[in-house]
Amino acid sequence: MKTAFFGIKLWEKEYLCERVANRKLEIESAFITEILTPDKLPADCTAEIVSVFVDSLIDKTVIDIFPNLKFLALRSTGFDHVDLASARARQVAVSNVPSYGENTVAEQAFALLLSLSRKIFQAYDQIKETGSFKVEDLQGFDLKGKTIGVIGTGRIGRHSIWIAKGFGMSVVAYDPLPNPALASELGFEYSSFDEVLEQSDVITIHVPYLPATHHLFNQEAFRKMKKGAYLINTARGAVVDTQALVAALKTGQLGGVGLDVLEEEGVIKDELDFIAHGRVEGHDLKTVIANHALIDMPNVVITPHNAFNTREALQRILDTTLDNIAAFITGQPINIVKQ
Fold it and tell me: CB burial class (10 A; 0-12, 13-18, 19+) of residue 254?
């Protein structure tokens, strides 16, 4: 089957070609470096299988331009970048990678937290820019003895709990589907969402983006948090109301924020391209401005949706994607996203 992989780097192409040959997978592969969006449509649209990462946008326009499309093989756990209703209407199956980087993303969450708690960036920037080794303005705080609230105790959440325990932190967690056995095994307590907000010195978010989690952290949620608490988000940008976040930081309600994801992430990543070719419809430009305010705040650390980005995690993504494609071809699909 003709298969098009979009947003592929050279090493990924080499890795996939080797694995496809070793497995004798009967696909005709095309590797495209560009991502796939309504504004970046390919010249060749004859693929029956399309594989994309989370930075592509698969809406009805994109789906309809592939007349032979039968299968979308997502190289991600999240699928909020895909119009599932349009895929269902076209009888296009969609698979994801349900597990590839639970430890990888959890480690990034704590990298962000440590950057904030020990003022790593400020210290580095001070030495690099001024040559000063003064420590008067670099006092941080211990993680040991602090309470961390874990929002979502799935694969990534539980790894975050393991790491937090290693630092000697107390853990409280919220999940709409609590796992008592996990709580007993790891030694933490489940509480209501509001109780976690009220008790935590640090909150780390590990939930998918769904209508129910849109702006889960909003003005009301920030008001309920401990004054001066820290927030870490390696999940999805739209789980947090960016404009409310800026306001909470400005008033000191939040002590600091570590973000690997942003609302309007696609715009902020390539603003020149958006200005030249993008469409304003469907975008919140106030949020784009709020993102710039966040970037300029000294108590905010932002990374460019990089939590997934280790060699090991990416190889797991590619391996599972090939598993999904092979299973689909044999008529026994796996990891299918419920539509």
Answer: buried
Backbone Cα Rg of the chain: 21
Q: What is the pLDDT of residues 20-48, one digit of tens each?
A: 999 999 999 999 999 999 999 999 999 99
Res 275 pLDDT > 60: no
CA distance 44 to 328: 22
- Evaluate if pTM is beyond 0.85: yes
For residue range 145-169, list pLDDT tens digits in order.
Answer: 999 999 999 999 999 999 999 999 9
Q: Please say whether the beta carbons of 236 and 279 come within 8 A.
A: no
Q: Just list the catalytic residues.
A: 236, 265, 305
CB atoms within 10 A of CB 103: 17
Q: How many domains does the chain have?
A: 2
Tokens of residue 65, six digits: 């331009």
Q: Output the domain CATH number for residue 253.
A: 3.40.50.720
| Backbone φ and ψ of 306, nearest 5° | -115, 5
Token pair 């509480």 is at which residue?
Answer: 191
Per-residue pLDDT, averaged over 282-290, amounts to 84
- In angstroms, the CA 314 to CA 46 distance is 27
Q: Is residue 68 part of a domain?
A: yes
Do 270 and 217 fall within a single domain?
A: yes
Whether 272 contacts 245, CB under 8 Å: no
Find all residues with CB under 8 Å of 254, minimum gap 6, and list them: 222, 225, 228, 229, 230, 231, 245, 248
- Where in the sequence is the domain holding 128, given as residue range(s)? 102-302
Instruction: Report, as an integer, the average pLDDT of 196-212.
Output: 96
78 and 122 within one domain: no
DSSP string, 65-133: T-TT--EEEESSS--TTB-HHHHHHTT-EEE----S-HHHHHHHHHHHHHHHHTTHHHHHHHHHHH---
DSSP letters of 257-304?
Answer: EEES--TTHHHHH-HHHHHHH---TT--HHHHHHHHHHHT-TTEEE-S
